[in-house]
Amino acid sequence: MNSAALARLVTVVMPFGKYKGRAIADLPGHYLNWFAREGFPPGELGRLLALMHEIDHNGLTHLLIPMRSSR
């Protein structure tokens, strides 16, 4: 994990579904858990969702605070 990937979590928005338009970093845990069970989409979006799932699952969302303030 690097700072560029963390920065992408607060800038990339969900392109589809119930939470369309919401930043990946702002997606609820239950939605991230659903992707973890059902499978993450391919490409960068899937990698970002998987990273956010790990961050959320491990209680590390505080790591995103500096990224949010620099937006």
Structural notes for this entry:
It is a single chain. The two termini are 19 Å apart. It contains four helices and no strands. The radius of gyration is 11 Å and the shape is globular. The protein has one domain (3-69). The relative contact order is 0.20. With 71 residues, it is mainly α. It has helices at 3-11, 29-38, 43-57, 65-69.
Characterize this entry briefly.
This protein has 71 residues and is mainly alpha-helical.
Segments where pLDDT lies below 50 for 5+ residues?
A: none
The tally of structural domains comes to 1
Average per-residue pLDDT, rounded, comes to 93
Tell me roughly what share of residues is in helical segments: 40-55%
Structural class: mainly alpha
Over the alpha carbons, how many angstroms does the gyration radius reach?
A: 11 Å
Strand content: under 5%
- Which sequence of SSEs, written as H and E, runs from N to C? HHHH
Biggest sheet: strands, sense, closure? none
Q: Span from first to last CA?
A: 19 Å
Overall form = globular
Please give the structural blueprint.
Layout: H1 3-11, H2 29-38, H3 43-57, H4 65-69
Supply database-style keywords:
71 residues; globular
